[in-house]
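User: Modeling request: complex.
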Amino acid sequence: MAQSNKNFKRFTVTSALPYANGPIHIGHLAGVYVPADIFVRYLRSKGEDVIFIGGSDEHGVPITIKARQQGVTPQEIVDKYHTMIRDSFEKFGISFDVYSRTSAPIHHDTAAEFFRKMYEQGDFIEKTTMQYYDEEAHQFLADRYITGTCPHCSYEKAYGDQCENCGTSLSPTDLINPKSALSGRVPVQKETKHWYLPLDQYEGWLREWILEGHKDDWKPNVYGQCKSWIEQGLQPRAVTRDLNWGVRVPIENTEGKVLYVWFDAPIGYISATREWSEKTGKDWEPYWKDEGSKLIHFIGKDNIVFHCIIFPGMLKKEGTYILPDNVPANEFLNLEGDKISTSRNWAVWLHEYLEEFPGKQDVLRYTLCANAPETKDNDFTWKDFQAKNNNELLAIYGNLINRTIVLTEKYFNGKVPERQKISEDDKAILEEIKKFPERIGSKLDHYRFREALSEMMNLARLGNKYLTDSEPWKVIKTDEDRVKTILNISLQICANLSILSEPFLPFTAEKLTYLLNIKPLRWDEAGHSDILESGHQLNKAEYLFERIDDKVIETQVSKLLEAKKQNEAQESGVNPAKENIVYDDFARIDIRVGTILEAEKIAKTKKLIKLKIDTGIDQRTVVSGIAEYYKSKDIIGKQVCILVNLEPRKLRGIESQGMILMAEDANGKLVFVSPAEKFMNGSEVK
RNA sequence: GGCGAGGUAGCUCAGUUGGUUAGAGCGUCGGAUUCAUAACCCGGAGGUCACGAGUUCAAUUCUCGUCCUCGCUACCA
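Assistant: Request completed. Predicted assembly structure:
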């Protein structure tokens, strides 16, 4: 992975810009901000020149929709969430050098300038297409602003990009009876001109740069995803949209057009750096334009294509920028077994956590780092959070510090005793200590945060073992000099921890430096065993962590269950009745009771099961899309209702002779409609 | 359907350029201990390394196929 960091003069570390239409949750933290923060704290501790960039992404259609729904302006929406996000990051110890926002004037300038330069260089292609236009509101309509009847499921409130009832993705022209969400009028199709980034032309150098150049140092998930995109063939992508919210297209005759949000958002990293530059008086350009700078994007896996292909494409074409050295994207974090969802309120919100667990930032940081979804999706559970606090942070780290300081208080009035004669065991320990900075650091250099964290804890484990093995509480009765040595070494371990744990546990490290009564030290000062001088006075012992008991965890779990209940209530939306029919329409339908004789999942399909049914009339094959809800082996022998006079139809090359009756709820979950008791096969359902 | 990532102890993960008894942390069980927030320390149990076939003297590691999870993409209803 990453070549030696020593080859670089400075580091530019960006973290994905959170979208300002909701608060931050643990998924964002575990995937992006905690690892990024650990990384930059480590670099700073090593004395590297590093800038850590964050900011809110405030443009795009979803924000305008949210604003309309709430009857406020988009700016009010983003003001609210930007403030909230910024403050919660700060309280959580995410140590941005700058946290900016894309509605800031400096960003509008930067993005417009970026676009203009590319435009003048002829880097875009222009295309005119037909788009829906609302003649009353006098504007073109984003896909989300058009509603109509879904051509698949007849749901009447489908959006232009997706039907929320059946989940199908749509394009606005698919909708039956399209309506503008702005005025309710029928929109008309109208020509509009947009600019496209010709990604297809970048394939050559992208292949060389990523597929050949980063085969070994990018994470497999990132590399694989890029490969997938490139091999599938890249398409030109529109960089502008017809919308009133965003960065105005900086060329003439482009009323009502803005930069597409994905185009302006990554430029936000650059704008933020410029903002930082204005505040600090330092030059921003080397961080983005000097080959001696190492640019690293921390993101979630949903952002890979933008940061590995599109944004680099923009940077390269613009011509004066460097490309990212690495994009250590993480996978997703689940919560108690379910996908985290902002709209379904299935999340642990950072601002709530900070209120409910005051002073426990590091506990969450630790849990999220230990469970970071580095190689695959991972699950956060409150029980695990509790275990990590009680059995690791408290039992191993906190306990070592506490017992060491308490012993020192007891025997030496809290003064660091002088080291006396060194035993072979002591020597071995001192040698071990030396290895930790490099051991932890090299893991961090390679973005292996979980392992780095575990190595850090190993130092605390080493300290505990040393204490237990050398039993100063016994030795004190016979050999005080020996105890001096033991505690001196134990205290040096504590001092090392104050340095080496700082990137992971900044609040704890700070408390620890207070307890040890020292100044924060740099990474290079770790590994040594003379950090604390003999005679140095410690402060009084205090706990670094407190036990979290079951009650606290139960409260959190029931809070989640409450959210789940509310979701279910909300999602139990029922479709309105269809038009009336006459009896004859119904009488033509022939439904029978049948029994499933065989069931076999059809390979390579998501939903299909091939069933053999005894209908009383005959035995026949039916293909049914129920595999997401039933396992083949569980349904054999089950009685079901089957529509027997449906025109046969081939699905996956198998002729399906009928249809099994299923009830479907608002979530699309299916359940068999079966006779209430065992009934003769072939019985008619009337 | 195509593509990508993953599938290793109860949980979270490491590892194997193919080679004797597959590792760690947490949990669990037992022991020891009392300086320490029932914490620390020692030890045990626990895995046919998703499944099947192939290559090989030897495969968890290579090849092929299958299944499962997640994502991207396409299509079908």
